[in-house]
Amino acid sequence: MDGVDEFGRTVQLPPLRPAEVFRIGLESSRAHRHFSGGQAGWERGQRDKPFRLWVTCHVDGHKPWHLHADVPQRFGDTPHHAPMQAR
Fold first, then answer.
1. Of 31, 66, 33, which is closest to residue 52 (Cα–Cα)?
2. What mean pLDDT is predicted for residues 56-62?
3. Which of 53, 46, 51, 11 is nearest to 32 (CA)?
4. In the predicted model, is pLDDT for residue 12 greater than 70?
5. Chain-wide mean pLDDT for the chain?
C-alpha cells in the first residue's frame, strides 16, 4: 500500500477537506507469538471486535490535534463509543 510505514500500522494520507472521503485497505494483525490458539483462533476472537483508529490532524496556524474512534469491522454496525473524540 502506498505511504504505509515499515510496520504496516501508519499511513500518510493526502490532505483532506472536511467531509472528504479517502478509503484505505486493512489487513488482519498477526497473532502474538505467545497466543496459543494460532492465527485462525486469533482471527476468530478478533473478528467482531472494533478496531481503534487514530488520526492526527494538521492545519496551518494550529497545533496538531488527535482524534480516535472505535470502528466496527462489519459494514452497517455502529461504534460502541462516541464516533470521534478530540484528545
1. 66
2. 90
3. 46
4. yes
5. 78
Check residue 31 and give its pLDDT. 85
3-state secondary structure of 51: strand
- Buried b / exposed e over 55-72, threshold 16 CB at 10 Å, is eeeeeeeeeeeeeebeee
| φ/ψ (deg, to 5) at 53 | -105, 125
What radius of gyration, in Å, describes the C-alpha atoms of the chain?
A: 16
CB 3 within 8 A of CB 11: yes
pTM of the entire predicted model: 0.55
End-to-end Cα spacing for the chain: 28
Q: Coil, strand, or helix at residue 38?
A: helix
